[in-house]
Amino acid sequence: MLNTKDYNALSLAQPTNFKGMLNSGELLWGTGCRIPHPEAARVVAATPYHFCFLDAEHAPLNATLLVSLIRTIQYHSNGSMVPFVRIPRCSPELYNYALGAGAGGVVMPHVQNAKQAEELVQLCRFPPLGGRSFPPAALIGEQQNRTPEGKTTYDVWDEHAAVICQIEDLEGLENVEEICRVPGAHVLTLHTWSSAVDGLFVGTGDLRMCLNLAHGSLDGDEAVFLSALRKIRDAAKANHLPIMGFGISPSGVELRREMGWNAFIIHGDIDAICTSAVQSLQTYTDAVSGAGANGCPSVRAKNAKQSFKSPMASLESNVKAVIAKQFKVPVDELTTDAELKNGLALGDLGRPQMLTALQERFDIYITDEDTDGFTTIQDVIDYVATRLWWYAI
């Protein structure tokens, strides 16, 4: 397993070489910190992941808080975890703050064409490679001087910090090749070619919505979805770029590995809190009540809407248990490859009744369009479990 510290700069105030880590070919595992507080980041920094995903697109992070979270991750992990930040295009000022604080990588969501990719590079690289402004107080004292021989801190920033484009729209999918081929100024000067973009991040949730697939789902095996992933893979491979994304399930990670992905976000602080809370309460209630392996029904019912268990297998088990109860059959006798029917399926429960039961139990909204292409009960289990996992992280 790759050791992040092997890629540290000579000062923790400078970014770890996340670009080098992504290009190492090694498998990288990421966690996430969605609770916008330094204390949450301090706890996350103690976990054994290669990088931490900080999301300024979907979390309320201003410049001061974002800088604090980045430095907390960097210093409290003692350089063993790389802060990796997603920043929307509508907040360009955050890129300089994030990189100045020591982020090892940044990703812009919804990159749709080469022009937007060029704008991202301009925000992140110092002249002549880009237009990033000189940060007078980002490094203080010896922090500025601890560099490899012949290198400046600006070289370290440009060479270490990964600039990632997130592909998740139809336009971005259509233009993924030109996005990958955005050139850098230094490359043009040398009369050779190389990409100024350091990698791609695939946003499967938005991509699936744009492809008119099940809303709220993050994975699937539909031909149009797999074709889109292959197009992204081919563009990245042709331009020697790594691919990142969310790991939805162990089997899904293996499939994405075959498509060239090598960095996965598989965990998060909210997920950990929900998992630990539910599991601990269940374990102790079982012990006191003598309920055994099947647990205490009253506790399960009370916490049904909070059952954000990880890994994915636990979530699938929760969903399967709800369906089995509605079918009035033991869980181990539920035939998950049974065909869904608009009328009766098993027992006295049809497809509409089953979806209604799942919505009420897990407090999620499922439309007929979401499940239009589903043919088996297992399709429903996979879909609902994925929705719950996504809410958890």
From TrEMBL:
PROSITE patterns linked: CARRIER
InterPro entries, alphabetized: ACP-like_sf, Aldolase/citrate-lyase_domain, HpcH-HpaI_aldolase, PP-bd_ACP, Pyrv/PenolPyrv_kinase-like_dom, Pyrv_kinase-like_dom_sf
Keywords for the protein's UniProt record, in alphabetical order: Lyase, Metal-binding
Keyword Transport among record annotations: no
UniProt-recorded Gene Ontology molecular function terms: aldehyde-lyase activity; metal ion binding
Gene Ontology CC terms: cytoplasm
Source taxon at top rank: Eukaryota
Signal peptide: none
Keyword Membrane: no
Domain Carrier: 313-388
PANTHER family registered for this protein in UniProt: 2-KETO-3-DEOXY-L-RHAMNONATE ALDOLASE, SYNTHASE, PUTATIVE-RELATED
Name this protein carries in UniProt: Carrier domain-containing protein
Lineage: Eukaryota, Fungi, Dikarya, Ascomycota, Pezizomycotina
